[in-house]
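In this supplementary section we document a worked example of the pipeline. Step one takes a protein sequence of length 170 as its only input; no multiple sequence alignment statistics are reported here. Step two produces a three-dimensional model, which step three serialises into structure tokens for compact storage. The input and output of this example are shown verbatim.
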Amino acid sequence: MRLLILTRGLPGSGKSTLANKLKDEAQESGYSAAVYSTDDYWMQDGKYKFDITKLNEAHEWNLDRVTCGIKEYDYVIVDNTNIVWKDFKKYVRLAITHNCRIMLAEPMTDWKHNIDVCDKMNTHNVPKETIDRMYHKYQGNAEIIGYAKDMMDTLNTYVEIYEYDPLGLF
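The serialised model returned by step three reads:
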């Protein structure tokens, strides 16, 4: 059964590093894998050019890529912040529709909830005030999993959903 991995965390917390590590580990174990990030939408000529007015368009663009990828790869990794349930909802519905297991994956970095360090580490110049706002809105994995299970109940369809365990993935 295919696996949809949804990374989550503040900008600068190590999500992209984790996403690429998971892809590499999957491939080394004989699985096909791909990483999809909404940030890719903003890359132009090797430079990150964010435009808030196109944020919804960018997320839909990434969802479309994930929709194609879920049919092609064993492991599809979504490298986004995924701070609140609203960020997850369409991806969870997609996984349910395609009978994919779902894993929530947060970086295991010591600074993943340290706003000052994330501010320094983030590569897209996300303002510290934005990182702080995201930190204060952050919903825990148990809450996100609860919402996903409620969606499954409503759709009367169930797929496995769990949290990342760095020792037990492969």
